[in-house]
Amino acid sequence: MFTKIPRLITFFTLSIFLLFSFTINVKASTTDQIVFIAVNDELVEFVDARPFVADGVTYVPLRSLATILKANVFYNSNENSVIIKKDSRFFKIYISENKYVTEAKNKMEAAEKLPFLIKTENDRIMVPLQFIAEYFQLEITFFEAGPIARLIEKNDLLNYTDEQLYVKYKEEIEVETERWKAERRHKKINKIAYLTFDDGPNKHTKPILDILQEHDVKATFFMIEPQIKDFKDDVQRMIAEGHMIGSHSVTHDKATVYQSPKTLLDEMNKTRETLLTITSFDSRLVRVPYGSKPYLTKEFRDILANNNIQVWDWNVDSNDWRYSQEMLISTVKKQVIGLEQKNITPVILFHNSLNTVQSLPEIIKFLKSEGYFLEAYDREHHIMINFWNDERL
Ligand SMILES: [Zn+2]
Predict the structure, then answer these.
(1) Would you say 257 and 391 are in contact if contact means Cβ atoms under 8 Å apart?
(2) Using H for helix, E for strand and C for coil, what is the string for 41-88?
(3) From residue 190, how far is each of 29, 339, 371, 384 by CA, in Å?
(4) Most buried of the four, 109, 113, 115, 321, by CB within 10 Å?
(5) What is the greatest pairwise CA distance in the chain?
């Protein structure tokens, strides 16, 4: 039998929730996968929002945490925070800030808030399970078939092995998986690819925007501060047409940008402020010059993470600055197909260049023919794409 999660939630008590986030044994490449949650010997049923795996992390509805963790959950609507309490331990999530603290209750107010990954799915707040469960010292196993993430309170109370548990629920799991797949097809959220353009804006930006408009697709632009001021109209057009903007430094000079964590942050903040002034859009997204490896060592990543900044690298490199048009197009196709086979979302690097302008229509046609929807970066659906696999970024 399923363990039912009560639909009713009182205002201040979210009651019991089991939280799972999964990095164990889950391929980091997975972008969107169903996952089943069990507590001890029973599978948990989710009424309104299903757990899922995104980029190797298992997310569960915040609302179900109490059931899953067998903890008490208290919601504070004034500060939009949730406290999860189990035995003498506390875990507090600041929902609008994407932060958490884990101090004892009396020290909580003074504790430093740390970045925390929260996703929303159909307006439900989804939080990483494993991270929270481990804080409460619950054991988690992951069974590939299913897959099932299983929270265990006390090993000696279990009647089933992971395999036996899977067999027990096999039929329900298969039915649920089919239903999930059908819904997914219905929603057409099958595949997303991200086009990204660095080193603009410049004279090639307008033709790029024209092509994107003509094909009705969205993209993400990582821009250099002085140029933003020179091409204000193009930057405003990006926002007006639904593209995403991000910072790509002021100087783009290795020695200057990476002189210290502070110079890096200052360059990104200055760019962010200029973008904000021109577009009224506050973007916390950056791409660091030359990509995050090797320059973005831990102390650099720390300062960005602590300032709640997302760093995006790429996983498809068009090599547009050195390849012929023909080679550019063929390398992008080849790399995208490689990722497609592994179910990884492509984030494609281009520059604002003539070569890219000339190749872009064919690349867009190719991606559409492969079934991709071309979207702009969306903070609500952040996926981790950095060469360090730093989950904070
Ligand atoms: Zn660059």
Answers:
(1) no
(2) CEEECCCCCCCEEECCEEEEEHHHHHHHHCCEEEEECCCCEEEEEECC
(3) 15, 14, 8, 18
(4) 115
(5) 68
d(CA 315, ligand 1 centre) in Å: 15
Q: Residue 77, exposed/middle/buried by CB under 10 A (0-12, 13-18, 19+)?
A: exposed
352 C-alpha to ligand 1 centroid (Å): 10
Token duo for residue 213: 């408009």
The single residue listed with the structure tokens 């399970």 is: 129
What pTM was estimated for this model as a whole?
0.56
Rounded Cα distance between 348 and 197, Å, is 8
Measure 199 CA to ligand 1 centroid, in angstroms: 5
pLDDT exceeds cutoff 60 at 16: no
CB 21 within 8 A of CB 135: no
**What is the C-alpha to C-alpha distance for residues 58 and 35, in angstroms, rounded to an integer?**
8
Bridge pairing between strands 36-39 and 42-43: antiparallel
- Rounded to the nearest angstrom, the distance between the alpha carbon of 279 and the centre of ligand 1 is 21
User: Tokens representing 66?
Assistant: 């109490």
pLDDT tens per residue, range 314-335: 999 999 999 999 999 999 999 9
Strands 244-247 and 316-317, by their bridges, are: unpaired
Residues annotated as catalytic (active site), given as ranges: 198, 351
Question: Alpha-carbon distance 129 to 389, whole Å?
Answer: 18
Domains and CATH numbers, the chain: 33-184 (3.30.457.10), 192-381 (3.20.20.370)
Distance 69 CA to ligand 1 centre (A): 45
Instruction: Give the bridge partners for 349, in sequence order.
Output: 196, 317
Tokens at 16, concatenated:
């019991």
Strand, coil or helix: 194:
strand
**Average pLDDT of the segment spanning 9-38:** 44
Mean predicted lDDT score pLDDT of the chain: 86
Ligand 1 centroid from CA 289, angstroms: 5
